[in-house]
Amino acid sequence: MATFHNHKQDIRRLVHKLVVMFSFAVVCVYLFYFLNGCCNSDLVENPDLNSVNKLLLTGWYDERNRTFPQVTTSSYGTLEDTRGSPVLETNSTAKDWTATRRLPHALIIGVKKGGTRALLEFLRLHPDIRALGSEPHFFDRHYARGLDWYRSMMPKALDGQIVMEKTPRYFVTEETPARIYAMSHDIKLIVVVRDPITRAISDYTQIISKTPDVPSFEALTFKNGSSASAGTTGQIDALWSPLWIGLYAKHLERWLAYFPLSQIHFVHGERLISDPAGELGRVQDFLGLQRIVTDKHFYFNKTKGFPCLKKPEGSSKPHCLGKTKGRIHPRIHPTVIQKLREFYQPHNLRFYQMAGQDFGWQ
Ligand SMILES: Nc1ncnc2c1ncn2[C@@H]1O[C@H](COP(=O)(O)OS(=O)(=O)O)[C@@H](OP(=O)(O)O)[C@H]1O
């Protein structure tokens, strides 16, 4: 009787051990698959799903919530992220764990009011790009904080992903090319250029939106503050910032002292509006990326008068850039425009020669 009882107990212990061992084996197998990313076999099988999942993994929205300790934002230094509701970083797999913060591989260095925000937001659709949402102004304002600080500002990126940021003021700041060169000799530089006259008016429109009582564009264009009608005789004030920024050849010269032209890509600001997919295609080529951002991502919003992004997977609705992009410009006296055309013409021609491209500004 006692022997039979002991035998029953032995069997119960054995079954218990087997259950524990089986559960342990199940947990191990699950962990093994999880760590190898096998749960995401769709990532390999289905290229479309691959892009979607990569977008999810890379979590393009996370920068909106990043804070910038002690960084003062400039008039154009505020984060303007135009996306819909925040998604993810919740769909993390083991691949996420290998993401690190790295110094940028590519920079949008200018020009202010050229269309730099649109370009950055469009590029952020690419799963192989991780871009900072705000402007860090590291090379022009916060250089003393050091490269570790700069790196800590960057979004986390996986191996093979390109890390980017945009600060349009870099293009016109004296010290910037040397500083960027000291960080990386082979960094890729992108400049969005736009007709310097429209660019200046856009800049001025931003100024009056913040300080409405500044003198007129016409008055500020001339050294002696001449009015529009007297403008035909006045001398252009090339040092007035909205005009000075448009002297592209002069600024480019400083960059070419450090970087070969092959490392600088010019985005045609006007075409970025009329043919965003075409411009984006060329930028993706320049960055050595597959052309993933294409015309299927854009639609023309008649109300805004600009291309906007169609509903991206993972977001609920289409989105355009915010209301500070695509402002209505004040009407400038035609005589002043003509004066500015004459003023910029030699500078523009020199710029076309240096860049090896004719941008067609009349
Ligand atoms: N898709 C789309 N939507 C809205 N706006 C667009 C777009 N593409 C280019 N642009 C032009 O971008 C101009 C603003 O340029 P930036 O983003 O470089 O300005 S800033 O320097 O960051 O302040 C902005 O200038 P304004 O029209 O003067 O507001 C636009 O003309």
TrEMBL record:
EC class: transferase
GO cellular component, one term: Golgi membrane
Coiled-coil segments: none
Keywords assigned: Disulfide bond, Glycoprotein, Golgi apparatus, Membrane, Signal-anchor, Transferase, Transmembrane, Transmembrane helix
Pfam families linked to this entry: Sulfotransfer_1
Gene3D superfamilies, sorted: P-loop containing nucleotide triphosphate hydrolases
Subcellular location: Endomembrane system; Golgi apparatus membrane
Membrane topology: Single-pass type II membrane protein
Disulfide bridges in this chain: C308-C320
Domain Sulfotransferase intervals: 104-346
Active site: K113
Any one GO MF annotation of this record: [heparan sulfate]-glucosamine 3-sulfotransferase activity
Chief location: membrane
Family that this chain belongs to: Belongs to the sulfotransferase 1 family.
Positions annotated to bind 3'-phosphoadenylyl sulfate: K113, G114, G115, T116, R117, R194, S202, K325, G326, R327, I328, H329
Membrane-spanning parts: 14-35
EC number annotated for this UniProt entry: 2.8.2.-
Protein name in UniProt: Sulfotransferase
